[in-house]
Specification:
The chain is α+β, with helices and mostly antiparallel strands. It folds into 2 domains: 39 residues; 54 residues, HU Protein, Chain A (Irregular), CATH 4.10.520.10. It has 3 helices and 5 strands, in the order ααβββββα. The strands form 2 sheets. A 3-stranded antiparallel β-sheet has the order 1-2-5. Strand 1 and strand 2 form a beta hairpin. Helix 1 crosses helix 2.
């Protein structure tokens, strides 16, 4: 599902105009991004949780030349699937 499809679904299900639905979806994603940017943990029960993981810098090796290079420390978002979503995706009809 794309962001546009989510906006369409929200508009259809709630009766909001497409413009209002777009504003709601963008606000939702902006707030999630802002929370992660300042280091907060994000948790949507049943769907997922996300947090920022910090990685230390290290000495790596250029695969082309074999010369050592310094890799800078970095922060990356880490997402973990919720239990309800795992079960829903893995659901098998009998």
């Amino acid at each position: 599902m794309t962001k546009t499809q989510l906006i369409e679904a929200l508009s259809r299900e709630t009766g909001l105009s497409r413009t209002r639905a777009k504003g709601v979806v963008e606000l939702f994603f902006d707030e999630m991004s802002n929370a992660l940017a300042v280091g907060d943990r994000l948790e949507i029960r049943g769907l997922c949780s996300a947090y920022v993981k910090s990685y230390k810098g290290y000495t790596g090796r250029n695969p082309k030349t074999g010369k050592p290079i310094q890799v800078k420390p970095k922060k990356l978002p880490f997402f973990k699937c919720g239990k309800d979503l795992k079960e829903r995706v893995d659901y098998k009809e009998t």
